Structure formats: C-alpha cells, structure tokens
Amino acid sequence: MAFKWYGILLNLALVALVFGGAAVYKYHFRSSERKSPVLMIRDSDSGKLYGKWPLENAEFSIEFIHSVNQSPVREKFRVQDKKIMPQETLFYSFGAGMQSDIEPGQIMSRDGDALIISGFDTAYTELNYIVGTVSDHILSIEGRLPMAISLRELCGQNAHITICIK
Q1: Are residues 26 and 55 in the same domain?
Q2: CA distance 41 to 86
Q3: Which of 72, 73, 128, 132 is the most exposed place for a label (fewest CB within 10 A)?
Q4: Domain membership of residue 12 as a residue range
C-alpha cells in the first residue's frame, strides 16, 4: 500500500515539475521579450508597417543630410518606458531648420568640426519624418549586431513615416 502512494506522489511530482517548468520557461521568455522595446516604422497615413526591430540597448539614431544647409545631421535617441527621449543632435553648420539657440538645461559642445546639443528633457510617443527625396535617412540601431537601415530603400522617397516604440 505504501508503495502505491509513493508511486502516486512520484507521478504528481513529475507532473508538477513538467508543468511548472513549462510555466517558468513561458514566463522567462515572455518576460524577457517584454524587457526589450521594439522600434516600429509605419506609414503615417495608411498605418502600413514597414518594419520592426528589437532595441537591445534601447538606443537608435536617425542620420540624414540636411535639405537646406546640405550637411550631415545625426539625431540620437534613447527609449525609456516606451517613450522616445532625445539624447543629442550632432550637426556641422547652422541654417534654416537647425536649432541655433539652446534652451535651459541644454548644453552645446564641439567634437572636432561637429556641434553637439544635448540635455533634452522632452519625451515623445512617436517621431514623424519625411524620408529624403534628395538624400537618404539612415536608421542606426545599437546592439550586439549594429544595424544601418536605409529608410529610402525600406519606405521609398518622400514617404511620410511614424516611428514609435511598442
């Protein structure tokens, strides 16, 4: 009789281990997926999804040639609590459409020929861009395998896009 109860308890322990392990496996991988924010690019009008990428380091940047002053610009962002936080803007010359005054809390510095503005305190739920007609916009994603994605190739010239985090 004791042997029968021992077998039943052993079977119950095995079932608990299998289902408990599956629950731990499911929880571990689903919760780790939630920890990495996902950057999504959509068409601003139709909502068509152009692509989505996990942000391992929660950092990305958009680089382009400014349409007026024809010099490179890099806008660097960090994601926190599904909000897009500007970190710095790097550019090489002032001109129409470029920030020329710094706001309270912001810092303007130099790195060689580049000017850098940092210290932004605004958070965004989304960013809107018009992909370059003359020059491309490049999405750069930091991580183990850094990526550089041509938004012109992905979305097309003059595409109105929205970047958001999920």
Answers
A1: no
A2: 17
A3: 128
A4: 1-35
Q: What is the pLDDT of residues 100-152, one digit of tens each?
A: 788 899 999 999 999 999 999 999 999 999 998 888 999 999 877 789 999 99
Coil vs helix vs strand at 127: strand
User: In terms of C-beta density within 10 A (0-12 exposed, 13-18 middle, 19 or more buried), how is residue 85 classed?
Assistant: middle
Q: What is the CA radius of gyration of the chain?
A: 24
Whether residues 91 and 112 share a domain: the answer is: yes
Sign of the Cα torsion 28, 31, 36, 42 reads: positive
Place of tokens 């996990």: 54
Query: Which residues sit opposite 51 in a β-bridge?
Result: 41
SS3 165: strand
pLDDT-derived band at 161 (thresholds 50, 70, 90) equals: very high
CB 52 within 8 A of CB 165: no
Is 82 in the same domain as 145?
Answer: yes
C-alpha 142/C-alpha 146 separation (Å) is 5
Q: What is the pTM of this model?
A: 0.74
* pLDDT (0 to 100) of residue 149: 96
